[in-house]
Amino acid sequence: MSATTTPTAVFRAADITKIYQMGEVQVHALRGVSMQLFENEFVVLLGASGSGKSTLLNILGGLDSPTSGSVHYLDHDLTASDDAQLTRYRRKNVGFVFQFYNLIPSLTARENVELITEIADSPMQALDALEIVGLGERANHFPAQLSGGEQQRVAIARAIAKNPKVLLCDEPTGALDVHTGIIVLQAIARINRELGTTTAVITHNAEIAKMADRVISLSDGQISGVQCNDDRWEASQLKW
Amino acid sequence: MLKLDRKLLRDLYQLRGQAIAIGLVIAAGVAVFVMSMCSYRSLESSKNQFYEQFLFADVFSSSGRSPNALRARLQEIPGVAAVETRLVYDVLLDVPGMTEPATARLISIPDTGQSRLNQVYIARGRMIDPLRTGEVVVSEVFADAHGFVPGDQVRAIINGRSQALSIVGIALSPEYVIQVQPGSIMPDDKRFGIIWISENDLEAAFDMAGAFNSVAIRLAYGNQVDETITALDRLLKPFGSVGAYTRDEQLSHQFLSDELAQLRGMAVMAPVIFLGVAAFLLNIAISRIIGQQREQIATLKAFGYSNFEIGAHYLNLVLVISVTGTLIGMLLGFWMGANMMGMYAEFYKFPSLDFRPDWMAVALSFVMTSTVSLLGTLFSVRSAVRLPPAEAMRPEPPPSYRPSWIERLLPQRSLTPEIRMVLRNITRKPFKALLSVTGISMAVAVMILGNFSLDAMDYMMDFQFRLAQRQDLSVSFVEPATESVIHEVQQLHGVLESETIRSIATRIRYQNRSRRIGIMGLQPDAQLYRLLDANENVIRVPEFGIMLNSKLAKLLGATIGDLVVVEVLEDKRPTLMLEVSGIVEEYTGVNAYMNKGQLHKALLESNVATGAFLKVDPNRIESVFSELEQRPGVGSVTIKDAAMKTFQKTVAENLMVMRSFIVLFAGVIAVGVVYNTARITLSERSRDFATMRVMGFSYGEVSIVLLGEIILFTIAAIPVGWLIGYGLAGALTSSLDTENYRIPLVINRGTFVMAALVVVSATILSAGIVQRRVGELDLIGVLKTRE
Ligand SMILES: Nc1ncnc2c1ncn2[C@@H]1O[C@H](COP(=O)(O)OP(=O)(O)OP(=O)(O)O)[C@@H](O)[C@H]1O
Ligand SMILES: [Mg+2]
Predict the structure, then answer these.
(1) Is there an atom of ligand 1 within 6 Å of B391 CB?
(2) What DSSP designation does B589 have?
(3) CB distance B304–A63 less than 8 Å?
(4) Which of B193, B225, B254 is the last residue of a domain?
(5) Which SS3 state, helix, strand or coil, does residue B244 take?
(6) Based on the domain organization, do B549 and B609 belong to the same domain?
């Protein structure tokens, strides 16, 4: 994060907790997390398995609500929103990339993207989105005909095609090998850079953190550290 | 096309086997519904139109010779809109080449050239010229059965004289839409026909100038029938009226009404059975697909698809299946309905009986199938809509299994892991298991329902024509015959045994209920016409009292020991008080029986007979018949065998078409349920199956797990289906319990076995289709993808 610009906070989370009730047992997935995400920022959420990363990201993305605390997206209070408002929020603003791609298997790559652009306000062309992730050639293939990395890139194309304000990626490379992981990360970084999309990426791979403007570490449902990188690495420079 | 809709089509293609099976079940239900409703409307509107245009009467009465002067008084009865007085006589026909007797009912046409009521519709040829003698118009079915065309001649034995009648036209009448001879239960086109002839001819032939013996009345709209009947009976009583009756007791109208009631019954029953099964099938198919698509649903939600859009997506999937099924059912229903009309056209004669699509019924089908399908899937779809997206992203937790209670009941050594898997799978979802069993049992039940009517008919034939009535010929006399006539008949060469009867028209009353019936006086030791109870035991005609058949007893609410009042409607018209001395089982008509000698005493008459039953040397039946035919006193002669054969032929033709549909539809249900259940087990368990295969289980062992469930369901469903089928057959017989005939609730063992076999075959067929997929399981693929 460069110190010369005045950053606008896109997300403001204040003291959020999330408790899952599992019969008798309470699982504290988040125990008082406060954080901000700024415009155009590339943030990596780092943490061990079970530390609450997905829970946090889902709350930011309006897929889930915290047990307590508040979350604002710009001037929207997400915690005060009902289901229909959250749906509208996601529809207008959020692009998701999931660890397991979650493409609709019965639709081709292009149709998967179009499925989302059809309900967006000012989307890009589905083919353009696929070009950005380098899959213009494979537009008419079904998910089953694509490799994991290709599927994940389609998922990224799908997430960015609606020109979202924020891009939330939950372990986008979790199921991929180094080489394809890097291609996917390059695609995400490029979108952040070229479209100015505020981007949050979950990983438990510390190496990936080198790409970020800021790295937020979670452990056991709490923020255990925030680190700013003066120098963002290119994805191609990463090794793991 | 929206991409979500494209997904829908592709999902549908994935689901095609199940979708087709479900669609066909819906189609079958809709087909029966549309067929019955269209037939109902077509038949009813043809009926109403014919009745209105050709002035079908509301009240009928017959009497002895009544002076025409009475007509003016009849006209003055309050509520009467129009009166027709006429002459009606049943005569024997002398048809060349025909060895069996044919009876014709002669009906007079007044000088105006058309009846005032029950008017004649000329289908071919022309109306008679009332001023020319010997011209007649013949009813269509009868003419067709004999190949008569206008210009032909027919000979009738009128009042003992053979007379030539020239046919000038072929006709229909609202009074004889279906031509059933009184006393028989089925139309017999060859042996009973209607002939219209000029009043002058009939008056001359029967010496009835200035008189009538039959009255038809049309009521002014909204009038009290009972009062009209009372007044009419009072006027005609001195002239030997046997009592007036309404359309409800008019045979042709009764048959039509029964038919319409049956169609309505079918229109109610079919949707209940078929749509119930379809709702269940849709429910399991859609819950499954929603379960499989949890993550897709979550993804759609994450990207901002609203609950409404997602709900609509799945409901649309349901609607595509049900609407397509309904469309197919509609077309099939139209086609079946048109066939049905063709069949009806052979029995029921209208100026026009066209198949009319009943668009209201079609609209109703769409509403019904859509509603039922949506209701059947509402809960699953609601769960899809309610699915919290964050949670759905996480893979579904492994289903929790428990050792099932059945396992504890079974010997431990017999429980292989495969069998345990099957049992636990069933007991984990007992409700689904219950519904599957019910679904399959419905197929069994429908099969029984479709086939039992043949068993019942066979039984009824056997009961009526072999156990009860053992004569070869029955003769009825025009006037009660004296002992000498009886003797002559009995002496005919070839007659082996004979019994005489005395029938008399009466009105029987018990408390406030009454019925017009004929009482038959039988000889106490009658062997040719025997009375039986429900267990087929012969009942000896007792010395005193009256025996009612079970339908009459039910109608009157009278039972053994009760005193009934019998008003005799002939001769001296005595009123008798009689004790009910027995209940007789009969499947046709409402009848009562008395000791013949006792009846004579009550009527203060000598030993006379109105009819006789004859046992005849088989080689001499024809000669006895033609001898009888020549005798002036003989009104009609019936050969039992001929009557039986016609009956069987009519019934068989009628039932065969329906039966083949029903077998087909039962198969559709069975395949639908079995295929769906097996398909869903396969899809729920394909990972398990692939894992088992990878670990070295054989194809056969895996198949046991897949098919064990469905085999157990089928085994359980068969007895349940037998029970339901028996219940439905019972409901059907009681809904078809009419005064004309009853269907006994008799189901042969063969029918039960047959139902089980059809369902087992359907099970094997559909299980086979699904099981082939086990061989095609992509072992690596299944293990790689996350469910
Ligand atoms: N729906 C749920 N019900 C119960 N507990 C849950 C639920 N979702 C998450 N948890 C629990 O909350 C904690 C945090 O989960 P979360 O998914 O946020 O972890 P994570 O950091 O994303 O882990 P991973 O890297 O393995 O994906 C975990 O202990 C998890 O078991
Ligand atoms: Mg996670």
Answers:
(1) yes
(2) S
(3) no
(4) B254
(5) coil
(6) yes
CA-to-CA distance for B75 and B231, rounded, in angstroms?
11
Q: How many domains does chain A have?
A: 1
CA angle B622, B626, B630 (to 5 degrees): 170
Please answer yes or no on whether A100 and B390 come within 8 Å at the CB atom.
Answer: no
Separation of alpha carbons B663 and B655, rounded Å: 12
Residues B352 and B388 occupy one common structural domain = yes
Q: How many CB pairs under 8 A join A and B?
A: 86
Q: Is the pLDDT of residue A2 over 70?
A: no
Residue pLDDT, tens place only, B550-587? 999 999 999 999 999 998 887 788 899 999 999 999 88
Same domain? For B17 and B64 the reply is no
**Amino acid type, B666:** A
**Cβ distance of B303 and A64 shorter than 8 Å:** no
Residue from A24, A33, A46, A54 to probe ligand 1 pocket by mutation (most atoms less than 8 Å from CB): A54
Where a domain ends, among B616, B641, B666?
B641
- Angle (CA) B38-B42-B45 rounded to 5° is 135
Contact list in B for residue A98 (CB cut-off 8 A) is 299, 302, 393
Contacts of A63 in chain B (CB under 8 A): 298, 301-302, 388-390, 393
Give the three-class secondary structure for B119: coil
pLDDT digits (tens, 9 = 90+) for B498-552: 899 999 888 899 988 888 888 999 988 888 999 998 888 998 888 899 999 999 9
Q: Quick one: B242 and B311 in the same domain?
A: no
- Pairing type for strands A9-22 and A214-219 reads unpaired
Strands A94-97 and A166-170: parallel
Using a 6 Å cutoff on CB, does residue A192 contact ligand 1? Answer: no
Q: Note whether residue B272 is domain-resident.
A: yes
Looking at the structure, do residues B89 and B194 belong to the same domain, yes or no?
A: yes
Interface predicted TM-score (ipTM) = 0.84
Residue A28 within a domain = no
Q: Do A87 and B303 touch (CB under 8 A)?
A: no
Tokens 């599992």 belong to which residue?
A: A22
Q: Residue B694 domain-assigned?
A: no
One domain, residues B210 and B233:
yes
Query: Can you give the residue range of the structural domain that contains B527?
Result: 467-641
Please tell me whether residues B573 and B554 are part of one structural domain. Answer: yes
CB B197 within 8 A of CB B107: yes
CB of B396 sitting under 6 A from ligand 1: no
Cβ within 8 Å, pair B296-A92: no
Whether B691 is in a domain gets the answer no
Give the 3-state secondary structure percentages of chain A, helix then strand then coil, rounded to 5: 35, 30, 35
Query: What's phi and psi for B360, nearest 5 deg?
Result: -65, -45
Structure-block tokens of residue A14:
């204040």
Does the residue A18 lie in any domain?
no
Q: How many CB atoms lie within 10 A of CB B272?
A: 12
- Ligand 1 pocket, mutate which of A16, A17, A53 (most atoms under 8 A from CB): A53
Cβ(A66) – ligand 1 distance below 6 Å = no
Structural domain containing residue A214? 38-67+85-237
The per-residue pLDDT for B183 is 66
Rounded distance between C-alpha atoms, residue B447 and residue B285, angstroms: 25
Tokens linked to B590: 């409402």
| Rounded CA separation B25/B672 (Å) | 7
Q: Kind of pairing, strands B192-198 and B102-109?
A: parallel
Q: Do B278 and B241 lie in a common domain?
A: no
Is residue B209 in a domain? yes
Q: Is A20 in the pocket of ligand 1 (CB under 6 A)?
A: yes
- pLDDT tier for residue B185 given thresholds of 50, 70 and 90: low
Indicate the pTM of the whole model: 0.81
Q: Judge whether A33 lies within some domain.
A: no
Contact (Cβ atoms closer than 8 angstroms) between residue B88 and residue B214: yes
Residue with tokens 């009825």: B476
| CATH number (domain holding residue A113) | 3.40.50.300
